[in-house]
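DUF1194 domain-containing protein, pasting as requested.
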Amino acid sequence: MLTTLAVLMGLSGLVPIAQAGGSEVDVTLVLAVDTSRSMDFEEIGIQREGYVEALKHKEFIDAVKGGLTGRIAISYFEWAGYVVQDSVIDWQVIETEEDAIAFADKLEARPIATQRRTSISTAIAQGASMIVSSPFQSRRQVIDVSGDGPNNSGDPVTPVRDKAVEAGMIINGLAIMLRPSDAPNGLDKYYADCVIGGPGAFVLPVRKIEDFAVAVRRKLVLEISGFSPPATVQKTAGAETGTDCLIGEKQWRDIFDR
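Structure tokens follow.
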């Protein structure tokens, strides 16, 4: 079975989306949502409600209509240590309020469940694979990763991130910081240095559960519009800042070495 890094390494041999034919949209956007067991059912439920509310909100619809073509293509999946296959909601074009509500309704109807471990690398590889195989031409290809901890399973995250960025994709992050993180300098700092990448990439932190819906909506509007928020955490090379992009793997290993 191919590793996530092997999947990403193969991207260079595929036909670029801009040459592949299909419908033209402003953005192809994959929502990759963490459902690991470090979050309880209440938190995951509020996370789900945040995405549903954001997708139905007027600001989201207006952002879609404000693009050059006035339409985007969006897909969704949940992940933890692996991609939850029955969570995948395949590509849907959003052009009208009815389109957005229909997609949100599909998401709202999904059962809520949690899984073990955290593999951001697997989430990025899945998102990249879905974008490459999509039937759409788009000006920007975005993988939107939400998570509440560092990578601790599968391939290391940075090589997978770098391959997706080399293939022309943008990776943005939503760092869920409702509880103390395993990342010593803060999960938003870890995401900034180890997860996000591409032109204008950004990470938004969520520190209070009541702020989740607003943060999700803000993130989606920024991604569709192509804007970036003012930098609260500067993205820098991990070697220069001391950010250890393997901290999650090391902590998990230490558990079993005791």
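Note for the archive: Residues 32 and 145 are 5 Å apart (CA to CA).
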